[in-house]
Amino acid sequence: MSYTFTIDDISEFMSSSSNNDFTLSLPNDLGYMRSKKEVINDDILIFKTQAKSNENISIHSNSDVDILFINIILEGKMEYRANSSDKSELFKKNDLYIKYIDKCESTSKLEKNSFSKGLAIGIKSDFLEKYLSKEFCLLEKLRKSKDKNVSTFIHKQDTLANIKLANELFNSPFCGKLNDIYLQSKVLEIIYNEFNEVNNCFCKTKCSCENIKLSNDDIDALYRAKDIILLTQDFPDLPTLARKVAINEFKLKFGFKKLFNTTVGQMILEQKMLYAKQLLENSEYSVSEVAFYVGYKYQQSFSNAFFQFFGVRPKDVMKTRKYYY
């Protein structure tokens, strides 16, 4: 017999910049899933997760975040499937995989009488943009791990060094500030190892980005794309924007960085937040309605993004209205 459980939006737990714990206790002694989140810095989080199942169990969850995850299985095994894909992946002890998550619904399956333990490192988009902006090919490879038309996971053959580091992270012997230093040093070493491995595996040939030529038509298309973002309240995703201005996605992303010294995603985010702030200040819309108008499926995800951008909560901005609801 198999049991299915659903976890509502866990975006806040996954992306908020505060240490937190999440526990899913299954009824009738069916098992549990526990995850302890520790904040390394503003852009990096770690999740120490353990799960025990006394029956065959499927756990469905949804999230609306923008985070790259390095996942390391330390004990047991788990089957994972993104609901946008027909493909399931089985991960076992000492497997390591990378997945980029934005808006995602997924299902994890646990076998009867099983125990699993894993470490996940969440890396926010700002970190990738800051440290990999000049490694355009590598950044593209990492982000393609969220594309349902491309292999979802990037596997690494030699995981021994990072398995050792992950176990040390999971079982840190320190506390307080010394623990913070210990965790940060181990996490950054894993991130370096992984990015270097991905770069070696998938970018073996010299990156040709610097040799890309933008034609006059390409440049016109890029300025049209910029106008769509800045002059309308339309917030298209990357494929839609590329189609609207008749340019391929690669040139859109590369050209945006080259011409405007920012990314498409960052400019869209800025406009979303500015428009949202305007609505919160001057309209009678609720926070959930504003979230919907700027393209967020979940109110909490919007609130988290708004707070990270402005440093205040949407509900606090609403209080500046003469009348607010």
Describe the structure.
This is AraC family transcriptional regulator. The protein is an alpha+beta fold. The protein folds into 2 domains: 2-202, Jelly Rolls (Sandwich), CATH 2.60.120; 210-318, Homeodomain-like (Arc Repressor Mutant, subunit A, Orthogonal Bundle), CATH 1.10.10. It has 12 helices and 10 strands. It has helices at 11-15, 125-132, 136-143, 160-170, 176-202, 216-231, 238-245, 249-260, 264-282, 287-293, 299-310, 314-318, and strands spanning 2-7, 20-26, 31-41, 44-53, 56-75, 77-82, 89-92, 96-110, 114-124, 154-155. Strands 1, 2, 3, 4, 5, 6, 7, 8, 9 and 10 form a 10-stranded mixed sheet that branches. Helix 4 (160-170) runs antiparallel to helix 5 (176-202) and helix 6 packs across helix 8. The model has no long low-confidence stretch (mean pLDDT 85).
Question: How would you sum up this structure in a few lines?
Answer:
With 325 residues, this protein is α+β, with helices and mostly antiparallel strands. Helices cover 42% and strands 28% of the residues.
Secondary structure elements and pairings:
Elements: E1 2-7, H1 11-15, E2 20-26, E3 31-41, E4 44-53, E5 56-75, E6 77-82, E7 89-92, E8 96-110, E9 114-124, H2 125-132, H3 136-143, E10 154-155, H4 160-170, H5 176-202, H6 216-231, H7 238-245, H8 249-260, H9 264-282, H10 287-293, H11 299-310, H12 314-318
Parallel strand pairs: 1-5
Antiparallel strand pairs: 2-3, 3-4, 4-9, 5-8, 5-9, 6-7, 6-8, 8-10
